[in-house]
């Protein structure tokens, strides 16, 4: 998700502030949901056109900040649980390919247990 240099910078930032004590997996998972909620709040009640306009305004910076917060918390969680995000994503893609074969789901939004 992020390169090793940036991860090292994040870990140093956290360590310098002695925040590891607060960053247990459960707390990081909770923080991930909170940060995702903050991103979602920026889009709440907006039409597609309003969202598009936001991306061309100063609101884009707020959106970027919330996306960054999500990525930071996820990076800490993956690091602390020794999860390689790239490997996890590849594994999930393989599972989804089996669960959602193209010939059954092409153009459909149905969940795998609905087709």
Structure explained in plain terms:
It is built from 6 helices and no strands. Helix 2 (about 25-45) runs antiparallel to helix 4. With about 120 residues, the protein is an all-alpha fold. The model has no long low-confidence stretch (mean pLDDT about 95). The two termini are about 30 Å apart.
List the keywords:
115 residues, mainly alpha, Helix Hairpins, globular
Q: Which range does the strand content fall in? A: under 5%
| Residue runs with pLDDT of under 50 for 5 or more positions | none
- Tertiary shape: globular
Order of helices and strands: HHHHHH
Radius of gyration, taken over Cα atoms and rounded to an integer in Å: 18 Å
Helicity level: 55-70%
On the 0 to 100 scale, the average pLDDT is 96
CATH class of the domain at 4-82: Mainly Alpha
Termini separation comes to: 32 Å
Please report the total strand number as a whole number.
0
In CATH terms, the superfamily of the domain at 4-82 is MazG-like
Q: What is the CATH architecture assignment of the domain at 4-82?
A: Orthogonal Bundle
Q: Which topology of the domain at 4-82 does CATH recognise?
A: Helix Hairpins
Main structural class? mainly alpha
| Major β-sheet annotation | none
Quickly count the helices: 6
Q: Which oligomeric form is depicted?
A: single chain
């Amino acid at each position: 998700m992020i390169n090793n240099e940036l991860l090292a910078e994040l870990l140093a930032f956290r360590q310098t502030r002695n925040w590891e004590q607060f960053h247990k997996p459960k707390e990081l998972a909770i923080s991930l949901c909170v940060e995702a909620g903050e991103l979602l709040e920026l889009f709440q009640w907006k039409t597609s056109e309003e969202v598009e306009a936001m991306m061309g305004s100063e609101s884009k910076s707020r959106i970027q900040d919330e996306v960054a917060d999500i990525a930071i918390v996820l990076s800490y969680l993956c690091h602390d649980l020794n999860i390689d995000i790239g490997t996890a994503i590849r594994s999930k893609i393989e599972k989804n390919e089996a669960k959602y074969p193209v010939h059954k789901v092409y153009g459909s939004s149905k969940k795998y247990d609905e087709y």
